[in-house]
UniProtKB/TrEMBL annotation:
Gene Ontology molecular function terms on file: dihydropyrimidinase activity; metal ion binding
E.C. no: 3.5.2.2
InterPro entries: Amidohydro-rel (IPR006680), Hydantoinase/dihydroPyrase (IPR011778), Metal-dep_hydrolase_composite (IPR011059), Metal_Hydrolase (IPR032466), Metallo-dep_Hydrolases_sf (IPR050378)
GO cellular component, one term: cytosol
GO biological process, one term: pyrimidine nucleobase catabolic process
Enzyme class: hydrolase
Protein known as: dihydropyrimidinase
Keywords: Hydrolase, Metal-binding, Signal, Zinc
Pfam family, one: Amidohydro_1
Reactions catalysed, as given in the entry: 5,6-dihydrouracil + H2O = 3-(carbamoylamino)propanoate + H(+)
Natural source organism: Gossypium raimondii (Peruvian cotton)
The keyword Hydrolase is assigned to this record: yes
The protein's assembly and partners: Homotetramer.
Amino acid sequence: QSNQFCDAGVGYPESTCGFSSSSSSKLLIKGGTVLNAHQQEVADVYVEDGIIVAVKPNIKVDEDVTLLDATGKYVMPGGIDPHTHLAMEFMGTETIDDFFSGQAAALAGGTTMHIDFVIPVNGSLVAGFEAYKKKAKKSCMNYGFHMAITKWDESVSREMEIMVKEKGINSFKFFMAYKGSLMISDELLLQGLERCKSLGALAMVHAENGDAVFEGQKRMIDLGITGPEGHALSRPPVLEGEATARAIRLAKFVNTPLYVVHVMSIDAMEEIARARKSGQKVIGEPVVSGLVLNDSGLWDPDFVTAAKYVMSPPIRESGHDKALQAALSTGVLQLVGTDHCTFNSTQKAFGIDDFRKIPNGVNGIEERMHLVWDTMVESGQISVTDFVRITSTECARIFNIYPRKGAILVGSDADIIIFNPNSSFEISASMHHSRTDTNVYDGRKGKGKVEVTIVGGRVVWQDNELKVVPGSGKYIEMPPFSYLFNGIDKADAKYLSSLQAPVKRYFTAS
Ligand code: URP
Ligand code: ZN
Ligand code: ZN
Ligand code: ZN
C-alpha cells in the first residue's frame, strides 16, 4: 500500500494495520545533522519512553534499541501548526477532516502537533471545551486548543479564567469578521483584551472589517457577480489592513500582546511591521496559502476548481505572496500556520449560485513543512535553522511549551522528523492523506522530503506509510504568561507614573 493510511475511511479499527509500530520504546537516530532554531550539529539522538535523553556524537546502545539511519539528512523538531480547524462546524456544515484524518495527514507531512480553535457552544466556553475534548478522542498526535470568544458577559469572563487555570488554554481568538455568526464588536474586543491581559493569555484576531465585508458582498451581488471570484472582490486587502490596524491599536491601548492570525496581505503585514518597529508586542502569522498561492485560481471558470481556493481573508493577487515571504524571512512575521479547514467539493458546492455560501477554508496541514522548505529555504530566503524556528520553535515559545516542544534537546518530548534535503516531494489530491477530494497545492513539486515522523517516541511515518493509532494522541496543556508578557507590568507602571506626574503638577499649580 502506498501513500494512504491503512485504516482510511470510516470506522477507525483500533488496530495499527498490522504494524507493531516501533516495537521498542528506545530509539537511536544515527548520524544526522540535528537542527534546532539556535544551532545545527552532527549528532545522534537517543530516545527513551518518548523523551530525548541524549544528543551527542557516537552514542552506543544495546541491541534492543530501534536504529534509524539519518546520515546525510536533517533531524529536527516535528512541525507545530498553530492554526487548524478539525471537525469544525462552520457555515452550515462541518470540516471533512476530523481529529484523526487531519492529524494523520499532518504526520505524513512532518507535523507532530497542532493547535485547534475551540468554538464555544451557545457562547459557553466550558461546553465548547467539552465538545472538542470529545471530538479529539480519536487523536493520534499532540494537540492543544485556542478558544474563540463569540459573545461577552460575566459568565464568559469567568469561564476564560477556568480555561486558563484549569484547562490548559492560554490564547483566545476574536473574529472581527463573519458578521451574524462569529463576529464581535470593538467593545467586546476591548473587554476581551483586558481579560486576556489579566489572565496572561494571548489575544488572537481574525482581522477583517466584517461590516465592510458585508457591504462588499452586497455590492458584488448587486453587480451580478455570484461566483468564487466575488468572494475575493468583496473583501479586499484594505479591509484586512483596517482591522489589523484597529486591533493593534486597541491592544496598544490595553498594553497586551497581540497575535494576528492568517496575515494574507501587504496591507496587514505593514501594520504589523509598523507596530513592531515601535516596540509593540505583535505577532504575525502568515499561512501557507498566503505565502505560496495567488488569486488566479479563484477566476478559474470551473466552479469546483475556483471554490477550493475560497478562504478568509482571501488569497490575494500576485505580489502579496512574495511580500509575505520577505516579511517572514526578515522577522516581521514570526511563524507559519495553515488554517487547515477542509471542505470537499460537495460542501463547497453549497455556494454554486452564491459565493457567500461557499464554506471558507483550504487544506495545508500535510503540505506546510514541504512547501515552506521549498519556498523559503530552497529559494535562499532563510537558513535551515530559521526553518525550524518558523515551523516549530517559535510556535512553542509563543504558546509557552518550549523547550518541551520545538527543540531537539535532552529532556524534550521526542517529536522528531528526519528530513532528506536531497529527495523531493510531489503533492496531489489523489495521494494526500486528508479526506478532502481537492488540494489547493495539487501538482506542486519541490525539493526535500519528510522521510520519517516520530511522535512521542513512536515512528508513525516511514517508507511513505503511516502507522497511526486513533486515541494515542496527547492533549498538551499550555500555561499562561509566555515570554510575550515579560515587561508588560513595567510598561504599565511607567505609563501610570507618566500620567501621575502632570496630573500632580496640575493640582499643585491651581
Ligand atoms: O476561511 C477560513 N479561514 N476558514 C476558517 C475560519 C477562519 O477564519 O480561520
Ligand atoms: Zn498498511
Ligand atoms: Zn480566521
Ligand atoms: Zn482559521
